Model the fold of this input.
Amino acid sequence: MRVLIQRVRQGAVHVGGETVARIGPGVVLLVGVTHTDTPAEADWLAKKVAHLRIFEDEAGKMNRSLKEVGGEALVVSQFTLYADPYEGRRPSLIHAAPPEHARPLIERFAESLRAEGIPVQMGVFGAHMLVEIHNDGPVTIWLERSAPPRGEGSG
Done:
């Protein structure tokens, strides 16, 4: 699973001209699922998102978590996070999980966030959505269950 975290002042999802979800300060989470993902990845990512210190403290340092600031989460499924754009001109989507595998894991991720005490709104799985993101900072972080290799100077 992959999650693109965007710290926001507000966010919303519109489908067919109607607002189906809206949050205030918190995070918009674009979530992609691949074929081999399991509920364990969903649970791990939700816990990481809830406790990741990406909100500023009184000194202006990113030292507070979503949970600590009482922020909300807007979960939006996005299969294109697994698009492979490197061959040809049209991105391949073969690494994206089919809906019958992805939907339960997206729902599990949202439920795991709720279990951490995070208020969660959701987009509409499989729908054409207009996602409104008021990125704060901007702060945008890529998160996967398997962390990329750590290089010199990372800590």
